[in-house]
Design goal:
single chain; mainly alpha
Length: 101
């Protein structure tokens, strides 16, 4: 499948499923996984054998990247909702190791 069709079909399916015109935040954070899965699922049913990662080490690295992105977005949300509380917790976390017991 040409790249234009790949991304176009993923956008089309997401619009149909969610009603959103733009990409959802989940697609932005987990795009490397979601786009490939969306296109593969659209072509037909996937078996358990097809969904198993071929390289477990690469899969673990991808999971760590996704977890870091997800943690960063959670921190942004917490800061936007309660900036004072977020900054106080961050300051406590930074100062605790520096103070003697």
């Amino acid at each position: 499948m040409p790249p234009n069709n790949f991304f176009g079909s993923a956008r089309y399916r997401e619009r149909r499923a969610t009603g959103r015109k733009m990409a959802s935040p989940g697609t932005v954070v987990r795009g490397a996984v979601r786009l490939a899965t969306a296109v593969a699922a659209g072509e037909g049913a996937l078996t358990a054998e097809q969904t198993r990662p071929a390289d477990p080490t690469a899969w673990r690295m991808l999971r760590r990247q996704l977890d870091r992105r997800h943690a960063a977005r959670r921190a942004q949300l917490r800061f936007r909702r309660h900036p004072g509380t977020y900054l106080a917790a961050l300051e406590d976390r930074l100062l605790k190791p520096a103070l003697p017991p």
